[in-house]
């Protein structure tokens, strides 16, 4: 059954004591629930606190509550000062890595080719990838959103071997909705998710399209999560601001628990 993923993108926030506080709150909340096997909760502290966060996850929750890094290198170990290799992330019990976030595309100038190399390297090292795509405001105003997303996917992940694509969840994050308080309407989001699923169907197979988790990201919070997660093609969320507080993040988890099919 398709995975439902509620992932917090913590970005460059929180010092160690705050990581401990947030992670402990999430653990406490999640421990009290009966979590279905297909629901994955993902948190993404910055590199230096991955192990701190991991140490707070009790054994019984390790298959449900997992960690993502926010970036990784496309290179194998070697002379690359300042870089972190996916094998090293795996080594500190990371399960996922976020690749292609619009902030990295914008500020670090990461292009399609580099994102393709990072994705491949991450999967070959045993990580799962949350691959982000999404158009900017200007592109939506020009009705270019479908072309932009198609290009982002075709140039970075659609030449993966089908077995590797099964390790990728896609996060559709319209750039104009990130951190702005503005969200895509549930219909706008679902329309794009359907389009992405159809592209996977055309490039791979119906089975892979049906099994790929497609998350929505962009100002998701408890107040709008219900309408978004009620959409049939929205398989979870990549959450920034609202993931930094226990109540709002766990509020979204609870909504997913109510709305999404479980197994
Ligand atoms: P936001 O961020 O929820 O604060 O809009 C989402 C993201 O950037 O992944």
Characterization of the model:
This protein has 263 residues and is of the alpha/beta class. The protein has one domain: TIM Barrel. Helix content is 43%, strand content 14%. The chain has twelve helices and eight strands. It has an eight-stranded parallel beta barrel, surrounded by six helices. α11 (222-229) packs parallel to α12 (246-259). The chain is globular and about 45 Å long. The mean pLDDT is 96. It binds 2-phosphoglycolic acid (PGA).
Question: Which regions contain 5 or more consecutive residues with pLDDT less than 50?
Answer: none
CATH superfamily: Aldolase class I
Kindly estimate the percentage of residues that lie in beta strands according to DSSP: 5-15%
Hetero ligands: 2-phosphoglycolic acid
Q: Output the strand order for the largest sheet.
A: 1-2-3-4-5-6-7-8
Helix content: 40-55%
Distance between the termini: 7 Å
The structural domain count equals: 1
Number of strands: 8
Helix count, per DSSP? 12
Q: Any guess at the CATH architecture? A: Alpha-Beta Barrel
The biggest beta sheet is recorded as: 8 strands, parallel, barrel
User: What general form does the structure show?
Assistant: globular
Averaged pLDDT: 96
**Text of the CATH class:** Alpha Beta
Q: In sequence order, what are the helices and strands, one letter per element?
A: EHEHEHEHHEHHHEHHEHEH
